[in-house]
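Final report, Chapter 2: Outcomes

The project's central promise was a pipeline that accepts a single protein chain and returns its three-dimensional structure in a standardized token representation, suitable for archiving and comparison. That pipeline is now operational. To close this chapter, we reproduce one record exactly as it appears in the project archive, with the input sequence first and the structure output second.
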Amino acid sequence: MQNYLTPNFSFAPMIPERALGSRVWDAEGREYIDLSGGIAVNALGHCHPDLVAALAEQSQKLWHISNIYTTKSAQELAQKLVEHTFADKVFFCNSGAEANEAALKLARKYGRDHFGGHKTEIISCLNSFHGRTLFTVSVGGQPKYSKDYAPLPQGITHVPFNDIAALEAAINENTCAVIIEPIQGESGILPATQEYLQAARRLCDEHGALLILDEVQTGMGHTGKLFAYEHYGITPDIISSAKALGGGFPIGAILTTDKIAPTFGPGTHGSTFGGNPMACAVGSRAFDIINAPETLAHVEKQGQKFQTTLRGLGEKTGVFKEVRGMGLLIGCVLADQYQGRASEITAAALKHGLMVLVAGADVVRFAPSLLLNDEDMAEGLKRLEAALTEWLV
């Protein structure tokens, strides 16, 4: 097939044609088990009938009306997010990058408004990933994504992840925000320690800084709770959400409190498509399914089962030296002799009818549907073992 798109993506050698649940079929009719979840987006699998119905229903009513008006679907989704989290207010946008951009802008403006023009500095973690806008790619701690776009926004400091002493040394009266992923996703599915996030909360309180948790990848059930911060015994000031929030339909959001939300007064920030009726209608239906106790319990149960099997596969083949993560957001760290070859494994898996991900060069990543059943899990792992066996030859 002729490619008419810019060459910033390296497409896989198959064209997906249709999908249902955790199964995908390409243009030639070949079946794949999808354990990638559209990079943690398809939280309820492909074409969930309730989401299809919500989209069809809303499509007959109202597609777009602009943010001159609010809509029933936007208010319904925002209410659900508020009632089941720490938050009082929600801002809707279209992606994780936009959500983090909004969170960072809100934090800077809050710092200036309440403390003065000096309070603008942002602390982030090395190897973090917060999006692809110029601001978020600068805050992300991976120079490979930002070095070609200098000059970059200033006032950003990067510290080692899970290093309390480094965070203590970096934070000061000029810090307006600390932004952390509860689980570093793109750099290897590396969970924050409870001590680290609790220390971050304490230090932000001591220095008048806001704690932003980037839950774009960890949010909406992937860890076995609605949001990952619930595992850590802390309350953030702002969280960003996207990916699974719309179950596959593009939407992003930030959640914050009544103390901070007024900083975004009329005209201070916006989004043409943010909170559009289509996205919010689908997101609201997805929320109900994801937040159901039986769904979250299923994630925890299937996650434990999945990780146990992956550890056994690592011992059997010698390919994985560690399996880590929470719930159904899982990373398999390659053994030392296979470092740097994660992309080879994803390619081998695809040949065996299995869709998986990388998280950096050394980690194979899984982010399947939260509704993953035993049959699809078993078949996916069977295909993974076959792929690894062939790859090792």
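Archive annotation: The radius of gyration is 21 Å.
This record, like all others produced under the grant, will remain available to the consortium after the project formally closes.
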